């Protein structure tokens, strides 16, 4: 078997991949679902309750709750319960980390 390095300039990405890259990739993967990006954009204007997010997105409450759970588990949004309503807001420090992670993963 011929194991020559191709002349096309490919690199061994595995050698540069570490646990920090893995965590960054996991964080960035949250953005693969367009509804989650929409939620993060909606929350730029401040705190909203689930019903307001549901109304704005036009999708069923169970799907809104699923997306909010994923965002909350990744630390991108915070929840605050007030009576029977749950209000969500962005965690700006974590949003900044997300933007940095995307930049680092895709930079030269």
TrEMBL record:
Q: What is this protein called?
A: Transcriptional regulator
PANTHER family in the record, alphabetically?
Answer: ARSENICAL RESISTANCE OPERON REPRESSOR ARSR-RELATED (PTHR43132:SF2)
Q: Which GO terms describe its molecular function?
A: DNA binding; DNA-binding transcription factor activity
Q: Which residues form the HTH arsR-type domain?
A: 16-108
Would the keyword Transcription be found if you checked this record's keyword annotation?
Answer: yes
Note the CDD domains from the entry: HTH_ARSR (cd00090)
Database matches in SUPFAM superfamilies: Winged helix' DNA-binding domain
> What is any Pfam family matched here?
HTH_5
User: Would the keyword Zinc turn up in this protein's UniProt record?
Assistant: no
- Identify the keywords attached in UniProt to this record, alphabetized: DNA-binding, Transcription, Transcription regulation
Q: Which InterPro entries match?
A: ArsR-like_HTH, HTH_ArsR_DNA-bd_dom, Metal_resp_trans_reg, WH-like_DNA-bd_sf, WH_DNA-bd_sf
């Amino acid at each position: 078997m011929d194991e020559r390095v191709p002349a096309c300039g490919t690199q061994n990405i595995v050698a540069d991949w570490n646990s920090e890259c893995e965590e960054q990739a996991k964080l960035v993967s949250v953005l693969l679902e367009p509804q989650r990006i929409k939620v993060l954009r909606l929350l730029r204007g401040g705190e909203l309750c689930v019903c307001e997010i549901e109304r704005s997105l036009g999708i069923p409450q169970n799907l809104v709750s699923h997306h909010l759970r994923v965002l909350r588990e990744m630390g991108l949004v915070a929840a605050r319960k007030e009576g029977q309503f749950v209000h969500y807001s962005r965690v700006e420090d974590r949003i900044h980390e997300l933007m940095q992670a995307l930049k680092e993963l895709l930079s030269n």
